[in-house]
């Protein structure tokens, strides 16, 4: 079976893309980093800022808190805002 591991560059690009999508959803909700992190998603402001910058990948628990607090469709986060479900 071929090695399907992501290269470090591809992994960094993916983290940055997810960070952009999280930030866009937060801004659309009208939240500052501080309000989103502390009040809504129950995480530190620095953690959210680092996630949005793509500095590290979120845990599943963190993703769940962000998706829930932002009322975000997981497909929007993982597949992008232009994704349309196939019928």
Secondary structure layout plus pairing:
Blueprint: H1 8-28, H2 33-40, H3 45-52, H4 60-69, H5 74-79
Helix pairs in contact: 2-3
Structural class: mainly alpha
* Corresponding CATH superfamily: lambda repressor-like DNA-binding domains
The average pLDDT value, as a whole number, equals 82
CATH level 1 name? Mainly Alpha
Strand content: under 5%
Identify the overall geometry. Answer: globular
Instruction: Evaluate the radius of gyration.
Output: 14 Å
Helix content: 55-70%
SS element count, helices: 5
Number of domains: 1
Order of helices and strands: HHHHH
CATH topology: 434 Repressor (Amino-terminal Domain)
Oligomer: single chain
Poorly predicted regions = none
The major β-sheet equals: none
Distance between the termini: 33 Å
Number of strands: 0
Which key phrases capture this entry?
single chain, 87 residues, mainly alpha, 434 Repressor (Amino-terminal Domain), 5 helices, 0% strand
Please give a structural write-up.
This protein has 87 residues and is mainly alpha-helical. 61% of the residues lie in helices and 0% in strands. It has five helices and no strands. The protein has helices at residues 8-28, 33-40, 45-52, 60-69, 74-79. α2 (33-40) crosses α3 (45-52). The radius of gyration is 14 Å and the shape is globular. The protein starts with 7 loop residues before the first helix and ends in an 8-residue tail after the last helix. 16% of the residues are buried.
Task: Produce a short descriptive summary.
The protein has helices spanning 8-28, 33-40, 45-52, 60-69, 74-79.
């Amino acid at each position: 079976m071929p090695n399907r591991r992501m290269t470090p560059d591809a992994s960094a690009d993916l983290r940055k893309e997810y960070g952009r999508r999280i930030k866009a959803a937060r801004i659309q909700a009208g939240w500052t980093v501080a309000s989103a992190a502390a009040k809504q998603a129950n995480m530190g402001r620095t953690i959210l800022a680092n996630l949005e910058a793509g500095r590290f990948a979120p845990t599943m628990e963190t993703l769940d808190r962000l998706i829930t607090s932002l009322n975000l469709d997981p497909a929007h986060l993982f597949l992008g805002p232009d994704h349309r479900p196939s019928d």
